[in-house]
Amino acid sequence: MAEKPAAVRVPRETVNDETVKLVRWAFGEGARVKKDAVIAEVETSKSVLEILAPANGHLRRRAQEGDNVAVGGILCYITASPKDALPKEVKTTPIGPEGGMVIGAKAKKLMAEHGLSAEDFKGKKLVRESDVRAALGQGEPPTVNVKAGSRGKQLSAQKLAENRYLASDENNRYSSSVTVLCPTKGLRAAAKKRAEWGGSLTPVILSECAKTLREFPLFNAYYKEKAVWTYDSVNIGLVIDDGRGIKVPVIRDADKKDIAAVARESQDRALEYHEDSLPIEALQDGTFTVTDLSGEDVIAFRPVINFMQSAILGVGAEYASGGERVFQLNLTFDHRLTEGREAARFLRALRDKLKAYEDA
Amino acid sequence: MKTLEDVVANLAGCAAGDINDDFTLDQGGLDTSLKKALLIASIRRHLQKDCMKAAIVKTFGELRQAVDEASPV
Asked: The complex's ipTM?
């Protein structure tokens, strides 16, 4: 049971944005909740996160469904009783012999915007704007140990948050990658014949990749606490980014859908992205991700594995090699679950499925 | 109700009045796979036509014909 009100904040480590949208409360105001129960869902640019209760107690909401809440901001408190007094959002006390705290006006405004309280600066007598920015990961660029002739520029809060997100999951620390070449002649010819693919190779790659994942479940899985957890479904996330920020809408049960259905769904998701109307459900429950940089003329790259997944496929641009047109299939995978030889087997199986369209 | 000109103009970032049968889709930037996907999905949503051929036509005139021949959603 929470003895004093426990603040529940938008997690800094797992969020890819400056703010997140509070999608849903799972319990009413004052409801009794158990430690680790899902109490809310928040939407980030990449996915929907579940917020867990840090202790047994009563839920005391501080944000409404639909609100945008700053990363690090307070969503709610967990209190011992439903009527316990809550801390003021920003506390200031005059400096004095007891060692109180003074908060600068700019700092106070920033703290209010980001849901920080004086508790976050415990031990300081004076809180300046720079202290708050440092706490938010927006500190001044480093001024020491830099090379002469170089200039520092602070990264955006969004990029810093993304970096925290990337560092929050260890799967990339232990990742490796493999690449195979795939000829495109047969695929292009098949795409011309089959209008239902919408003139793109992406749906056939997504569809065949989903089917291949059924044969290689370790790539449709994640590592947690010395165990491999394989997903029951194959839900493929497709990275979209045309300058409005990265989103990864998910095609559920992609292994059970035909190519035309995958094409339609990915087109509809792209339009929803374009119109900023992607439903929350479309961003949830991805089990594997495909990212396609062929439109950027990128031949080879090493994509980063998404949270709670074990692998990601990167699709490169076509180029000429050995007298034929080819493109690269790049797989980054969590080396704690499997090894390069198995990853190569996965990619060869996928390539063989794609090559088979030459004869179709 | 949106017209096909409205749909193309919205994605190409120009005025519907600028669209005629000779308008080439690549001049409106509709030659990338993402833009083609958006075009097909927009036609499906706004004109209730399932026109996958929109991805392979070159001009607005060809697109109009493909949409006319496409099945309703």
From this structure: 0.91
